[in-house]
Amino acid sequence: MKYAISLFVILISSVCFSQSKHISHSDDLGLIHKHTTFPNSLVNDLSIENVRSNLMNETGKELELAYYKNSPKAHYYLFQQNFNNIKVYGAEIKVGIDNNGKILRIDNGLIDIPANFSSTSGFINWDPSNEEANLLNIKKEQILILINNEIQQALEVTVHFDNDEYIQYLVSESGDVLQTRDLNRYHFIDEKDTTALMVVFNPDPMTKASISWINGADYDKNDQNETFLNPLRDTLEIELTYDENSNLFILENDRLVIKEFSNPSQPIVNSATPMFEYSRSHHGFEQANAYFHITNTQKHIQSLGFMNLVDYKIEVDVNALNQQDNSMFSFASNPPRLFFGEGGVDDAEDADVVIHEYYHAVSHSASGNTNSGTERRTLDEAIGDYFGCSYSKMINPYNWENVFTWDGHNQYWGGRFGNNPNGKVYPVTFSGGNIYAHTDLWVCALMEIYNHIGRNAMDQLVIESLYGYFNQMTFTDAALLIVQADSLYNNGVNVPIIWSTFYNKGILPSNPVSIYENEIVGVNVINSIGFSTGGSLTLLNDKMLDLNVLIYDVSGKKKFSTVVNGDERLNISGIDFKSGVYILLIEDKFGNNTTYKLMRQ
Q1: Is 432 helix (H, G, I), strand (E, B) or coil?
Q2: In terms of C-beta density within 10 A (0-12 exposed, 13-18 middle, 19 or more buried), how is residue 185 classed?
Q3: Residue 296 domain-assigned (yes or no)
Q4: Sign, Cα dihedral of 114, 120, 123, 127
Q5: Domain boundary pick from 317, 349, 366
Q6: Is the dihedral of CA 339, 362, 313, 455 positive or negative?
Q7: Digit-coded pLDDT (tens) for 144-176
Q8: Judging by DSSP bridges, how do beta strands 327-330 and 270-271 pair with one another?
């Protein structure tokens, strides 16, 4: 007998890997735990409205599209939960579906709201103040928020101050500020007109000279050390625009423009000839340097097949932030902007800094409005660090692990690392909401895989994974997205090294086989939520084939095995499964197999 089961019932109910978030910082107000599902099901209609309507029908929740993006291999949908047309803060569901209609994963953070709940009438009246800056724009939205497992009415206020700060406030009904959050993120060209030569640091002078900052030596000397630094520049070719009206070469293309919008004010350089050569003490050097590395990075992204990331003309000011020793990406402006400070070493002189900030823009473009949660924000910082390491190591492997080799690791600031020098193992404590303390653990894992499979292959997997990012996600969630990406691009051939690398760092559990490799279509596993609390697990065999069904614990020890005949329903119950993670392996006589992660509380 065949069992006709709604695709999205399986999608919502068969949670094969659920993870609690152990975070309690102010950044995580309204935290809603996500349940992750890996359904083995197909969708015929990939339209946004079809996916949304099916989810609404099956969950009974009011949903609206918050973000959609498609990669070369898959489609990613983020839906926001509403209640009576009011946004429920942090309540979302993210769906990834490949181009063949196979559902890759669901990250479900929808919540139940009591039927008798009703918001109070009247709009919460609250206005921010800032002693150091004036308001340029303010946006207010009535929301619902989950606090101590209770739904409450609140106000979300987003403010743009005249010092380029974009601040989000969450305010209670009584007018108390529940959370304050800074929305800035700190520290191939479709049609090229022509090419020009630029004299730049590639990637930075310390790497080029194969030296390190030592004994407090000041190699920068406030931009004056030209005798030492100028010979460390390289002359390289890059695409830009030739303006026929002015007969000038300008630092602009369809994905980037160098502009002036933050103090100190410096004129934008251009050239009557296809050559941009400036001494590194000239403000034009930073402009050309940032332009070259951002354009080169966008070309690399497109060469890997990603044509729709940062698919707008991002504005870049390389002499910004009143000479602070900091840089940032701001997505609140239209279009988004990059700011590079000049304190210490000018940030735009170091390719690591330029690429780090640009990948905040890439991440936001791939999966917008999903950078909430301390661990999620740590991942965003680590992604920028990884691509800085990836880029630098490709050019010159000397000290590749020193993220911000020129800008940091000196008397100005300590920089960060890509090789996990303290041997950290996940899980780690994100004390005080520090989003920079453990970036090295994630970067180290990615770089170890990079060393095995190569730069292009690893960069492609990491970029693909960004489309699946969601609010409040963890290192484990991100690692599973890397595994998923390898199944899409390489049929899972790299999964063993990917999995073992993340396992060795505590990020993934032990697993005998890939969860995505050689999957069997037509077998559905349901009620894994019930299984996690001691109930039975149900397997529906639509293959009309005999299947071996086995369950392993994380050490690889077999806990259960049986054979399921074609067209049969199997209930797994009455077995003493202790608390922990288990792997359900299903294989047919042709050697195809599928695995699912199970949890038992």
Answers
A1: helix
A2: buried
A3: yes
A4: negative
A5: 366
A6: positive
A7: 998 877 888 888 888 877 777 778 888 888 788
A8: unpaired
Give yes or no: residues 13 and 97 share one domain.
yes
- Pairing type for strands 256-258 and 314-317 reads parallel
User: Pairing mode, if any, of strands 580-588 and 593-600?
Assistant: antiparallel
In a domain, 120, yes or no: no
The radius of gyration computed from the CA coordinates of the chain, to the nearest angstrom, equals: 26
CA distance 433 to 305: 35
Residue type, 222: N
Q: Are 168 and 183 in contact (CB under 8 A)?
A: yes
Tell me the C-alpha distance between 134 and 151, whole Å.
33
- Residue found by looking up tokens 């038992």 in the block: 600
CB hemisphere CA count around 45 (13 angstroms)? 9
| Domain CATH for 582 | 2.60.40
Residue 122 lies in a domain: no
Domain end: 366, 395, 416, which one?
366
Q: What is the pLDDT of residues 44-100, one digit of tens each?
A: 999 999 999 999 998 999 999 999 999 999 999 999 999 999 999 999 999 999 999
Please name the helix (run of DSSP H) or strand (run of DSSP E) that holds residue 285, with its range, or none.
helix 283-303
Quick check: helix, strand or coil at residue 391? helix
Question: Using 50, 70 and 90 to split pLDDT, how confident is the model at 25?
Answer: very low
d(CA 463, CA 73): 12
Residue 99: inside a domain, yes or no?
yes
Do 365 and 420 meet the contact criterion of CB atoms below 8 Å apart? no
SS3 for 439-506, per residue? HHHHHHHHHHHHHHHCHHHHHHHHHHHHCCCCCCCCHHHHHHHHHHHHHHHHCCCCHHHHHHHHHHCC
Chain segment 513-540, per-residue pLDDT in tens: 334 444 555 677 777 767 777 777 777 7
**Helices 455-466, 374-395: inter-axial angle, 10-degree rounding:** 160
Strand pairing of 166-172 and 275-276?
unpaired
pLDDT computed for residue 103 by the predictor? 92
What's the CA gap between 165 and 161, in Å, rounded?
Answer: 5
The structure tokens listed for 234 are 């390289």
Taking the C-alpha atoms of residue 296 and residue 293, their distance in angstroms, rounded to an integer, is 5
Confidence of residue 579 (pLDDT cuts 50, 70, 90): confident
Q: Is residue 409 predicted with pLDDT exceeding 80?
A: yes
pLDDT at residue 216 above 80? no
Q: What's the helix, strand, coil split of the chain in %, to 5? A: 25, 30, 45
DSSP per-residue string spanning 515-579:
SSTTPPTTEEEE-HHHHHTT--EEEEE-SSS-EEEEEEETTS-EEEEEEE-TT-EEEE-S--PPS
Closest CA to 599 of 14, 65, 57: 14
- Structural domain boundaries, residue 580: 523-566+575-600
Are 79 and 88 contacting, i.e. CB atoms less than 8 angstroms apart?
A: no
